[in-house]
Amino acid sequence: MDDGSGADVRVLHVDDEPSLTDLVSIYLEREAGDVDLSVSTSNSGADALERLRQERVDCVVSDYDMPDVDGLEFLRAVRSEHPDLPFILFTGKGSEEVARDAFRVGATDYMQKDTGTDQYTVLANRVVNAVSQYRAKAASERYGTAIEVLDSGVYSLDSSGCFTSADGVFCELTGYDREAVIGREFADLAAESDDEIRAAFERVIAPDAPDTERFETVLSPGPAYPHDDDLLCEGHLALRPTEDDDPAVIGTLQDVTERRRRRNRLRYETRLKDAVLDTSTSLMSAETDEIGTKIEWTLQSVGEVADLDRCSVYLYDDETNVAARMHDWRGGDRCEHPERVALEDARWLLERLHRFENVRLHRVSDLPPDASDTKRVLTDVETGGFVAVPMVSKWALVGFVVFDVVETSRSWTDTEVDLLRSVGNNITHTLARQRRERELQRQNDRLEEFASVVSHDLRNPLNVAKGFVELAREEEDVAYLGRALDGVTRMDTLLNDVLTLARQGRTVGETHSIAIEDVAERAWKAVDTGDDAVFIIEDGLGSTQADQGRLQQAFENLFRNAVEHGAPCRDPGDASADGASERAAGASDAATTDGSPADSSGTEPATHESAATSASDELIVRVGPTETGFYVADDGPGIPADERDAVFEHGHTTSASGTGFGLSIVESIVEAHGWDIEVTAPEPDLGGARFEFDIGGVRSEVEPRFSLSDD
What we know:
EC number: 2.7.13.3
CATH architecture of the largest domain: 2-Layer Sandwich
CATH topology of the largest domain: Beta-Lactamase
Largest sheet: 6 strands, antiparallel
Keywords: Kinase, Phosphoprotein, Transferase, Two-component regulatory system
Distance between the termini: 41 Å
GO molecular function: phosphorelay sensor kinase activity
CATH superfamily of the largest domain: GAF domain
Organism: Haloferax denitrificans ATCC 35960
Number of domains: 4
InterPro entries: CheY-like_superfamily, GAF, GAF-like_dom_sf, HATPase_C_sf, HATPase_dom, His_kinase_dom, HisK_dim/P_dom, HisK_dim/P_sf
């Protein structure tokens, strides 16, 4: 790296604390490894600018918070004179906003000060890397300039601006044969206005003209021009002396179309980078209830800057191998991406996303023969160019983001794809934060519920138990102890229900594919239903992915609720004649297919049949399928329509012996699986309560069954 002028790398460290600049200088020179690195110091931005004008400096390391000129103002001043000089903002007063502004102004790198000396090793490495990249870029540009000169076409013009000669490079560059241009006026080749060429020619042949004149114009290419777009050229003209003093001009011509493409691409990538930075800041600061809106704004912002037609976020469930579209944006009246994508529908695509690869296609026809399933999915929604980036959490695929254009092809650069991957990462982290905040809120809610029960609901049975114990002691009558035991039993029931909510909450353990019918049967056998209950399971319940133990708990609570509230005039196991006669009418329509009576013992459920005409004191509980899940219904007194939304609230009960937490536990189990539950209108032949489970899949308003990690 040595250029003969001393140290390999010269660093200017700018900080208003002299003791710190001395310390940093010592460590940087020590930690630079094999690189001969020297550090000069300055304590103000103004002094540092003057040093840059007088000395050779390979890299600037600057603090942010300085009294005369802050780090960003100093950076702007440096960039006005040294556009590409490596500049590292090394500050103790850092923030995301400062980092974002530093990169926008043109910082090469950003590093926040820390405690300890290890940070100086990192800083030294960053300095050496920045200088190496800067020097490699400069060498590449010098080499590129030499190549451009070699690729220049050479021609000569007479005093009227007509071609007198043109070399082979000129003809190859413009697509014209030499015979086609000799004698033709150069300005005639202009595609639009010939003012640039004519003005440059007139200036160079004028008296006291400059040595050379530069011009830039768009030429109409000749028949042999190999490209479809216009020919943007940069030319130079110089006066060439002749023997007869008749002015003649010699010129060079370069095709700068590719240079314009690179310039436009750089401007576009800068705009896209700014959009990614802006949206990431917005996502990081979003409140939990506005994250969905901010994600869709992110998709729109990136989509408009990148000139895309559609952007969609999919969350992937590795238990069902199905991805569900959660958020999307579309430009104009474009058709939507599919709502759901199963593994078997797009195996080629999803297998690559499972390997955490970015997937890019310039056109759908580029797909290999073994990707016919993926091609069918993309063709159905008119996809042209396409990029999909994985959403990764705890080394697992939790979703992906799709960016595409409709019908047309699209070339994607590495920088562009990397920036789109950053968008996917930002969305992943934002959803993870949302999940953490929701879980924290739920934990706080459960703590408040627990405190409420301990401070209020437990006080009544405690007072009852205490009062009857005192009566038993004062009157020496042990009969009062039975009443006291009732209060203790009530307290025990309340504590068990509240601890269930506090410990399990809205989470589930490992899930498996389970038969709903089997879980319902086990739950029925586990509940004390007395001798007067009939259990009916209809055909077609099927299977689902669930935590078997917690789903069984939900069934048990619903069955216990049916028994507790099953008749208006009796407690479980003690039916009245009035309550029995009311249910007998509802049960009379539920006969078995062969006419045999249903088993009312309560020990073995009557499955796969309708209910037979039951005895007058029987309670009927039935489980059956729906289009999106299943239901649990009974022929008890039912739930009034105006109370159906309140039954899942903690402590809501109409039974003197109930705790009001049974249905709340059911709701928490349902939500933990990503399902929905609601109280619906009663079954026509039963007339009692009916609870409907919707297990139809992941929906945007429900927490997904899978959880995003804390990464």
